[in-house]
Amino acid sequence: MKTNFLWGGSVSSMQTEGAWNEDGKGLSNYDVREVKPGYSDWKVGIDFYHTYKEDIKLFAELGMTAYRFSISWARVMPTGGDEVNEKGLDFYESVVDEMIANGIEPIICMHHFDVPNKLVEEYGGWWSKEFTEAFKKFTVVVVDRLGVKVKYWFPMNEQNALMYSSMLFSSKDLPENDSKSRNRRSTQSVHNSHVAGAFLRKYVKQVNPSAQVGGMINYAPFYPTDCNPVTVNKARKIQEMSNFAALDVIVNGEYSSETLAVWEQADILPEMTKDELRLIKENTAEYIGFSYYSSRLVSEETSDDTTPEELSKMAVAMMTNNMEKNPYLEQSKWSWTIDEIGLRTSLNDIYRRYKTPVIILECGMGVIEELNEQNTVEDDYRIEYFRNHIQEMKKAIDLDGVDCFGFLTWGPIDILSSKGEMKKRYGFIYVNRDETDLKDLKRYKKKSFDWFKQVIESNGEEL
Ligand code: BGP
Question: Is 158 an active-site residue?
């Protein structure tokens, strides 16, 4: 392991910050979302907006050397128009300063699915050119303020999710049965997001040539359930379109021939100008970040339609805990398979194809937990989970020659899940609240805190 290997954690703005209507923040698409019974709203999160100094102290005590977070667009630009909220920028600058003072490298993800709601009302989502232009303005404002202080940047969380989802954001105006229009919206969203991502990389480098600009996807290996060549080819094709279609553009600056063929066949090619394609080609990623949670199965019955709408059905199956069970693997309570060898496979798949340094930006397992009488959680399962995953990562580095420069866990401190659950806990630090009762929001170290601290101190030697 390299001596400057980054160890740390990742979060997003809306899952942590709270302060939903404070200091000039505008309404985001999350603030206006319907809250289903048993889930939390997004108003308080874990109150990081007010507790960041104490939280960063805890992260420093844990030994973390990197922390990846996102910028709430509506906190910085309340309506997504030209108005800038200086207090929002001040907040992020203080967070960055605090991290640097504590020896923690900030890694900024500009966009983690939360946007000013006004933009959604006006333009719908990523398929709109106006929306994409608004993102560029947001980028300029944030990079002008933080560009010289922050070394690691990337534009979007799990950029391939744009491929999966025709829902980013409102598609209410489209008839249910009009799948061609939905697919076209997805491919246009994908393309516009690549334009936006390339713009961010270009602008960051302009402001700070020594910064490192990357890209990020969610990676899952797709295993064929049998050796029938039909199944094997389906798995390959789904893997190609789910994982590599986005990475090819992010890292090589070009759409793959397979992506273009699939889109052409389905008559869903997006509009792409020469200038946009040049921007994409000239501003590729210097590192690849990915989130890793589980592997997936492809069987003979799986559809080999790899248009965005079909791929999104697979992603939805995962998010709704409806995945096919792999008989060789355990699953979490949310039916996500626990597959540490899949992490080694993923690292190899990505590094061999792109020969570009990689960083694991999310990894973890959601668990229902309660504080015991000693005000801690005996989370031996988390220790085991991370021990196994780190061991496999080390094999990828030491035995397979992968250039991996960091391991960041998802939610090093308990945060709201992507759907707004508090019971799905990932952290080394327990936060005392549940879905609807905010309690006192106090932080408590779990047993895994000391274990991960020792892992970092020994640079991955003592597991
Ligand atoms: C990733 C998202 C995160 C995060 C994580 C865990 O896909 O980038 O926002 O929440 O998944 O998912 P969940 O919170 O649903 O357990």
Answer: yes
